[in-house]
Specification:
The complex is a heterodimer of chains A (173) and B (500).
Chain A: H1 3-29, H2 45-72, H3 74-116, H4 118-133, H5 138-159
Helix pairs in contact in A: 1-2, 3-4, 4-5
Chain B: H1 2-12, H2 15-33, H3 39-46, H4 55-80, H5 89-100, H6 104-137, H7 142-153, H8 155-158, H9 164-178, E1 181-182, E2 189-190, H10 204-212, H11 214-220, H12 241-263, H13 269-283, H14 295-306, H15 308-311, H16 313-319, H17 325-336, H18 343-348, H19 350-381, H20 386-405, H21 408-426, H22 432-454, H23 466-499
Antiparallel strand pairs in B: 1-2
The chains are: A mainly alpha (173), B mainly alpha (500).
Chain lengths: 173, 500
């Protein structure tokens, strides 16, 4: 996808968000009082103003990108896209898999914290993410994975006096 | 006044405060030096650790990180041509060529001396001008604050990068997120969707960490293979007093450029550094030597960069509006500690203000000591691979987000905002306007509604006195200036491909 096409999609995306926000999210998400003294004091006034702003900006980005695409020329853009499509698609797919995996790992850690504790979740997270990122030297990653979460746990609990969940390890406290 | 200064000494002079300023500058220097870590990220990561500190201690720690970060970026800029901060990209121009010529030590020394002098001058300007501006701002009511914040929101344009429309759109999203919670006038819920955790609104720190730290970490997973830059050798002799004297004029000029630009919301360190550099080049007897390893180039760039630091605190302390992204974070830190910077703070908490001034002056002295001590260590730290560094930062983020309210929900907020921030990063939508609008949004809306309640709905209250008119005029001029520059930049970009 060329730069201008990407910008065009971003602009259209913003417009869609503004429209959905105006017609769906604001009516569903804001409870209005039975009577409002002035329109500008209404709880939904600012969100409506902001959606207008977002819509205008989205339109500007889309229009600018549209003219940029015209300027670059359709034939050049098509030729470039054709050349790049093969290698770029493969790279994109590989990156997307890694990112989705990373996000899944984050949410897995979020759900695991109440069960195994924040320190243990941190240990697993460091080991997993360093491995995925390509670090294979266990002599560095294992000590890092153990020492850092433990130090952070000790600091917050014993220095800052902020309790941290230990999960199943609560019994060993 | 003497009593306030004496009380401030009492408040400031504790072992804890003396140590945290040192630690803050130390952390900031290292964070600033690591390419891929930004000063706002460093301040965001340190912020959770300040919760249990006294407000003055916590704020001084964050200010130390800020100051250290401004200098730290220059170390890797000189040694490996990888500026740790955007402002340090100017230091690369002559710093790296000096390192290549075997004069790395001299370049680092001059960068440090220039940073310390400029930082000191910037602190003096803060001490001299903040009080004066705050006393003027005592005349402000909700309409004046509303117009001031509208003007402040034009700083968004200063941090929007190349695309102004995207920057404003990011700000709009920040304003929407700031409305989550209970309505302040009617008490009804906004965007809560039945989730009780959202009734108090979104916590500032998970949003901050999610926006500035997580996207870089997630983005790391898209990179196939990470290269590592080898650090340049710490070669050559140290800078002499004669070297410092010959660069002093550029250092002083750069410091004042930094002060003036730093006091204007939205400008930041990078434009100040480049303006200082260009002035030094223009007035030099041998301008062609710039870009090839001229020591004055390094001095001018660093002076402009660091001259901004104290000055950006002027609008923050005096008016309660941030001058850049980092001071926006620091404003959030003030609020977390139950303090509201601005003219009222000068009235009611002058002791705290003076204590802050003392800490800020001390940070300049520490900057010199730490700068001297840390160059060798920092040059090694910069070689830490991101595949080790970012997982460690990720775990730090999780602990920090949880610690705010002892609530796992804040960790979830951080992750979701992190995904949003990553999407913005890939779509080249700047994150800084989002954060600034998120912080200023509630102030904007509250002052707007208070003003309307005062005037029984009459919008003319926003034009009630010359102060309002001045801010409206400044806003209009600012927008005109920004749009004009944007159009010119666009025309320039269009001409270049056509010429090719």
């Amino acid at each position: 996808m060329t730069s201008a096409t990407k910008e065009y999609c971003v602009g259209i995306g913003m417009l869609i968000i503004a429209v959905v926000g105006w017609f769906v999210v604001i009516p569903a998400g804001i409870d209005l009082p039975s009577s409002v003294e002035f329109r500008a004091l209404s709880p939904d006034f600012w969100p409506h103003v902001v959606m207008i702003l977002l819509g205008i900006c989205g339109a500007i980005v889309a229009v600018q990108a549209h003219f940029d695409r015209q300027r670059v020329g359709d034939s050049i853009e098509a030729a470039t896209e054709e050349e790049e499509r093969g290698e770029v698609q493969f790279e994109f797919a590989a990156s997307a898999v890694r990112v989705v995996g990373a996000l899944a790992g984050l949410f897995a850690a979020y759900f695991a914290i109440p069960h195994i504790g924040i320190a243990a979740a941190g240990v697993v997270l460091i080991l997993a993410s360093t491995f995925v990122l390509g670090e294979r030297r266990l002599k560095y990653t294992v000590p890092l994975a153990i020492i850092l979460p433990v130090i952070l746990y000790m600091f917050f609990v014993h220095v800052a006096n902020i309790p941290m969940p230990l999960g199943v390890f609560e019994a060993f406290r | 006044m003497i009593e306030n200064i004496v009380s401030a000494f009492g408040l400031f002079l504790s072992f804890e405060n003396l140590i945290v300023v040192f630690i803050g500058v130390f952390i900031g220097t290292f964070v600033g030096a690591i390419p891929g870590m930004t000063t706002p990220m460093g301040v965001a990561l340190v912020l959770p650790f300040t919760f249990t500190m006294q407000p003055i201690t916590g704020i001084l720690l964050l200010l130390g990180v800020y100051k250290g970060g401004l200098y730290g970026g220059s170390i890797t800029a000189i040694l490996i041509k990888a500026p740790g901060t955007p402002a340090a990209s100017c230091t690369v121009l002559d710093g790296f060529p000096m390192a290549q010529k075997g004069e790395a030590r001299k370049a680092l020394d001059i960068a440090l001396y220039a940073s310390c002098v400029a930082d000191f001058i910037s602190n003096l300007s803060l001490i001299l001008f903040a009080g004066f501006l705050a006393s003027f701002a005592l005349r402000f009511g909700p309409p004046e604050f509303f117009t001031l914040i509208v003007f402040s929101l034009t700083i968004i344009a200063g941090v929007s990068g190349d695309n102004l429309a995207k920057g404003i759109a990011a700000a709009a999203m920040g304003l929407v997120l700031a409305t989550v919670g209970l309505d302040i006038v009617y008490g009804t819920s906004r965007f809560v969707f039945g989730e009780t955790e959202l009734m108090g609104g979104l916590s500032f720190i998970p949003v901050l960490i999610g926006l500035f730290a997580l996207p870089e970490i997630i983005n790391q997973f898209t990179i196939k293979k990470e290269g590592t830059a080898a650090a340049g050798a710490l070669s050559g002799m140290h800078a002499t007093f004669q070297d410092f004297k010959s660069s002093l004029k550029s250092i002083l000029r750069g410091s004042f450029i930094g002060v003036i630009l730093g006091a204007i919301p939205g400008i930041g360190g990078a434009p100040a550094a480049f303006l200082s550099y260009s002035e030094a080049k223009r007035t030099n007897k041998d301008p062609d030597s710039f870009g090839k390893g001229n020591m004055e180039g390094v001095a001018a760039a660093e002076a402009g960069n660091n001259g901004v630091a104290g000055a950006t605190m002027i609008p923050l302390l005096a008016l309660g509006v941030p001058g850049d992204v980092v001071t926006a974070v620091i404003l959030g830190a003030f609020m977390i500690h139950g303090l509201r910077p601005g003219p009222i703070m000068f009235e009611q908490n002058l002791t705290m203000i003076y204590a802050l001034f003392m800490g800020i002056m001390l940070s300049s002295a520490y900057l010199f000591v730490i700068g001297k001590m840390s160059i060798r260590a920092v040059s090694k730290i910069a070689n830490l691979p991101n595949r080790m560094l970012y997982p460690a930062v990720l775990v730090l983020c999780i602990f920090g987000a949880f610690a705010i309210n002892n609530n796992l929900f804040d960790v979830l907020v951080m992750f979701i905002v992190g995904i949003l921030g990553f999407t913005m990063l890939r779509m080249e939508i700047p994150a800084a306007p989002f954060l600034i609008a998120f912080i200023l949004g509630p102030l904007l809306e509250d002052n707007f509604r208070q003003a309307l309640l005062m005037s029984s709905g009459d919008a003319l209250i926003f034009f009630r006195n010359p102060i309002c008119w001045v801010f409206w005029t400044l806003t209009a001029l600012s927008i005109l200036f920004i749009v004009r520059n944007h159009i010119r930049a666009k025309r320039g970009a269009d001409v270049i491909p056509m010429a090719g």
